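Hey all, sorry for the wall of text incoming. These are the two entities for the joint prediction.
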Amino acid sequence: QVQLKESGPGLVQPSQTLSLTCTVSGLSSTSNSVSWIRQPPGKGLEWMGVIWSNGDTDYNSAIKSRLSISRDTSKNQVFLKMNSLQTEDTAMYFCASSNFAYWGQGTLVTVSS
Amino acid sequence: DVVLTQTPPTLSATIGQSVSISCRSSQSLLHSNGNTYLNWLLQRPGQPPQLLIYLVSRLESGVPNRFSGSGSGTDFTLKISGVEAEDLGIYHCVQITHAPRTFGGGTKLELK
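and here's what came out:
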């Protein structure tokens, strides 16, 4: 069955770079897009960006200058890198498949010194 | 960017009650290909969102038929015909017609 799983550090220091991995199984990343979405504690969902099946990317304009999404098709993994983290970037980070049919469990990232 | 406005932000219901949630878009969600890409998600406490409805009214596999979606253009509605305890959580609408994809602010369904 389809599974997505996020992994990465739970704690990041302010001004540092966040690196997250989404490992996908049961679904080919070359046939499906994968999005990153985040949810600050007690708040709503924010779409961050997507890597399309052809490898092109689109980003939320509010964070575009800090964000990069890439992939390793041989490992069926999608990566998120976001720099210059601040406390307001503290959130649960999710990856999800095309049309949001499948989601990972999420990984909590806390930005704190 | 397309803004999705969900109302009400909080909904209190008793078991068995029928409820509706509205999602209004700042632009028409009708795509040039004729489809309207408006989905509904449910996020239970401590869980990731799950897809309930896609393309306005199509029920995702395994979702009970007490859930239904309707609407067109800029106005959409999710209806639950007979709330059950497992339905409690936050409901989100999301549009994927226009870039960037955007979510509504969410509607929290709680027990009265």
